[in-house]
Amino acid sequence: MKELKFAVFGAGFWSNYQIAGWKELPGLKLSAICDPEQEKARAMAEKFGIPQIYTNPKDLLSNEQDLDFIDIITEVDNHLPLAQLAASRGINVVCQKPMAPSLPECKQMVESCKTSGVKLFINENFRWQAPLRRVKQLLDNGNIGAPFKARVSFCSGFPVFDNQPFLRTLDRFILTDIGSHILDICRFLFGEARNLRCLTRRVNPDIKGEDIANVLLEMTSGLHCYAEMSYASILEDEVFPQTLVLVEGEYGSIELCSDYTVKITNRQGTIAERHNPQLYSWVDPDYALVHSSIVDTQANLLQGLRGGEAETTGDDNLQTSKLIWASYYSAENNELVDLANFNHYE
Ligand SMILES: NC(=O)c1ccc[n+]([C@@H]2O[C@H](COP(=O)([O-])OP(=O)(O)OC[C@H]3O[C@@H](n4cnc5c(N)ncnc54)[C@H](O)[C@@H]3O)[C@@H](O)[C@H]2O)c1
Prior knowledge:
The protein is an alpha/beta fold.
C-alpha cells in the first residue's frame, strides 16, 4: 500500500480529533500543519509529532513536496479559497463540513477541483456513526419492508458555543452546522428528496443565527421525512451528540434510541440491539459516537484517495448542501421548495 502524504490547514478545536483519527489509520504521513496563529500550529505539531509548521498556506504548499492531499479544518469562510489553492497545485482536497458558506461557493469548490483534475471529499462523519450504519443495513435488508415515514431528530440544550465560539456570530447557524449532518443522514438513509418545507427560528438571544429548524422532506421514494433540530431544547434526557431516528415501514418500525440502542419492531414484538461506538484512547467518552465515526469516515475517504469508491465526494455533498440552502429559502419565503427546479441562491 502506497504511503499517502498530507498536510492540515487549521489547528483549532476540531483538528484535535480529526488528526487523532488520521493517526489510527495505516499508510499515512502527516508532514505539516498550518495556522495563521503560530502558537496553535506549534501546540498541535507538538501534540501529534508533526515535523513542520507554517502560518501561510501558500508557503506550506510551496515547501512541502509530493503531498497527496490536504485536510481543511478551518472556519467555513476559508474552505473555498484553501481548496482552490490546493487544487491549483494539483493536490487532492479533504474538507470539513459545511462545504462552503453559500450554495454557489459549494458549486465553485466542486467545479474548481474538477477543472484542476483533483479529488474533493467532504469529511461528513455523522453518517458513519455505528448505530446509524445499522439502521441503514436493516432498511437495505428489507427488515421493515418499504419505509413510508421517518423522523430524524437532533434536539439538545448542549452549550455548543463554549467549544466553538465563532458559531455565535454566524448569520445562519443551525442548518449550516448540525443541519449539514442531519440532512446528510436523511439522504444517506432514504435517498434524494423531491421537495421540502422548512420553518426556522431563533430562541437564544445571544446568538445571531437560527437555533431551531424543522424540515419536512418528501423523498423521491414518496417517504415523508421530518428532520428536526434544535440547540435550545431543555430536556429530561439530554442525549447530545446523538441523533435519534424513527422509521416506519409496511411490516414494522426501526427506532434508534438514546444509548446507541436500535429497536426493530414488527407484529411479533421488539428486538433491541446495542451498537456502541469504538472507544479509541483519545476519544472523549461523552462524545464517543461522533469522535469514533471520524475514523470510519477517514478510512472510506482514503479508499477514494487511493482510487476506489468513497461516499462523501464533493458531488455527493453538493446534494446535502442544496438541502441546506433550499431549507433557508423555504423558511425565508414561506414556500414549499421543488428541489428539481431549485435555483435560488445561485
Ligand atoms: N465533523 C464534525 O463533527 C465537526 C465538529 C466540529 C467542527 N467541525 C468543522 O471543523 C471546522 C473547524 O471548526 P473548529 O471548531 O475547529 O474551528 P476553530 O475556530 O476552533 O479552528 C479553526 C482554525 O483555523 C485557523 N485558520 C483560519 N484561517 C486559516 C487559514 N487560511 N489557513 C490555516 N488555518 C486557518 C484558525 O486560526 C483556527 O485556529 C469547521 O468547518 C467546523 O464546521 C466539524
